[in-house]
Specification:
5 helices, 100 residues, 76% helix, elongated
Length: 100
């Protein structure tokens, strides 16, 4: 039921302002899938980095670069979602707080 309400709210916003690129992007399933892939990639990188730190005593410098890159992507994602939904992003279902 909450999902249906969200869908109706999103459809209204798109019809109200068809030039809202952030809304179109943040409601696109490909965008969600892409961010999910970045999350999975980040988790794998963190796991490999921790394993290297535990066994070798240090990790490669590339892991720090990848960490900054993933953080940048996550910040851009949050900015896009905030641009699309405003403060309503934080008033909806609890999943939004997980992204912070």
């Amino acid at each position: 039921e909450a999902y249906a309400h969200h869908f109706e709210d999103t459809r209204w916003r798109l019809e109200d302002n068809p030039s809202n690129w952030a809304m179109r992007l943040s409601t696109n399933p490909t965008f969600d899938t892409s961010i999910g892939c970045v999350i999975l990639f980040n988790a794998i990188c963190l796991g490999v980095q921790v394993q290297m730190d535990a066994t070798v005593g240090s990790s490669l410098a590339i892991f720090e670069t990848l960490e900054y890159l993933c953080s940048l992507i996550f910040a851009i994602e949050l900015t896009i979602r905030f641009r699309a939904h405003g403060f309503a992003l934080f008033k909806r279902a609890g999943w939004a707080w997980v992204t912070l």
